[in-house]
Amino acid sequence: MEDAAKDMNTFLRIFFDEMFPQFSANPLHFAGESFGGHWVPSFVTHIAKRQELGVPETFSNKFDSVVLLDPVISFMTSADGAVYDHFCSPGSKVKFNQTACEAMEKTNPECDYLDRQCVDTYDFNICKAAFDYCDSVHAKWFYDYGPGMPDPYDDRNVCLLDGFACGHFDMRFVEYLNTPKVQRELGFRDFEYKVFNAALNRAWGWQIAVPTTRQMSYILDHTPTKALVVNGNRDALM
């Protein structure tokens, strides 16, 4: 993530300072969805701290806001823990069966303890161990996405297809981005755009296990950047 933040700083500096300086005075808003809850706070914090220290070759603009949509800031809080709260709480509109809820409830104290250790230490190995344990004890009850299962992004629906996307994403933009004309204009060859890219997820490795709560706290407490976080009421995962 640190390497990616350095690359983003370089990209923004070249884009606004060298290539398109006429846009440098425009308000700057940084938005991300899902895993954007990791990279947006990380990138903004990295650049803001460099600005504060006066590090040479730092992108000079301030971010007016960050916008996070269904963000993964702490995976265990916003995914594993949220699944139990969403589907097993007394007021849940869609419920898991009693066996699943009781099994998940028994493991919640250990998950909460491990999550606190992760947040307190930011230690990769501790966070990964917490991630592995909590994901394993909840996964068998929820992550087997398939026809008839609750849609993790909108529990008013049930999954139509196997897989994480569940069959409810609007696929028209996927078809559009895969048309030969658009592919040529974008300069791609033999490239298939997918709504969910498992290979890209794997490339980020286990960085999702370490939360970005510290980065968000820094943005809110030490910068003028405002934050807007949007999450659907019927979205179980975030």
Characterise the protein shown here.
- This protein folds into two domains: 1-73 and 212-238, no CATH class; 92-210, no CATH class.
- Helices cover 51% and strands 6% of the residues.
- It contains nine helices and three strands.
- Strands 1-2-3 form a three-stranded parallel sheet, covered by helices on one side.
- The longest helix is centred in the middle third of the chain and has 24 residues, at 98-121.
Question: What labels would you give this structure?
Answer:
238 residues, mainly alpha, three-stranded parallel β-sheet, 9 helices, 51% helix
Overall form: globular
Instruction: List the helices and strands in order.
Output: HEHEHHHHHHHE
What structural class should be given to the helix and strand makeup?
A: mainly alpha
Tally of structural domains: 2
Total number of β-strand segments? Answer: 3
Q: What amount of the residues lies in strands? A: 5-15%
Radius of gyration from the alpha-carbon trace, in angstroms: 20 Å
Count of separate DSSP helical elements = 9
Residue ranges: pLDDT <50 for 5 or more in a row? none
- Please estimate the helix content: 40-55%
